[in-house]
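Explain this protein:
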Amino acid sequence: MKRFSTCAMGLGLMLCAQASFGAILPTVLETGFGTVGQGAAGINNPGVACGPTSVYNSFVYLESLDPGIAGDLTGSGAASTINTLATDMNLVPNSGISAAGLVNGTNQYISDAGLSNVITTASQIGSANITAQFIYDQLAMGEDVELGFTWNGASGGHVIALTGMSDFDTVANTAMVTFLDPWGNGTAAEDTNTDPTTGDLEGSPATPGTTAAAETGMLSLVNGVWTLSYMGSAAGAGGSGTLVVVAAESIAPEPSTIILLGAGLVMLLAWRHRARVNVMRKGDAFNEVANAAIE
């Protein structure tokens, strides 16, 4: 029943979005995320652990939606789970992970946990393939979303966990976002990868914080690719990056939920069909009167 209410809420948000007559789509906000920073005790390679840490914080959110899977994703503790995710993502010390590593490693972890039939995933990889509409749709369906980007004007990159999206203007191609930055309020600048030839999503000798920082930013379409610009006060403040990967995870609806949602969709389509038929009939009646008047 918990899963049904979550999925129904997501569907309702989607329907509201589609019903919006303006360019601005309704705000989507999620709560219940983990707040672990990548510098927390026990995390291996903390300077490059943004990807697995953000996914862990998202897993906390998913477990809050369904008590039936409590502990199944987050394991025995944050550090051990993040270290396992790092291994699955093929994290390279002093370098980080790749965009594909974020997606494939998350899927591997879910599979090893025996939750492939419970947790579904979706993703977009490559800056040319990423759309803000996809990001919004995942949030509207109640899914958690991680964004990976490479810094503009600097080497290296970063991964964050989205918590909300507002003021999404589908005409101006801009949106405001809230997110958890796993770097937190760490010391020194983040993500200064010493090897500019790599496309890693992290890479820094600096020290990250132990708690993730709640941040705000703006998404905008720049030269055909989506960019995230920091608006908050974390180590990335004032910087911007080009999105290169979007990863999303959600709790799969139970069969009964799918049937109910399917029935609702059928009813909606039937209502639209009847409305269209009624309009056509009124139009025919009007034409008959008009023709009679002309004759």
Notes: The first strand starts at residue 24 and ends at 25.
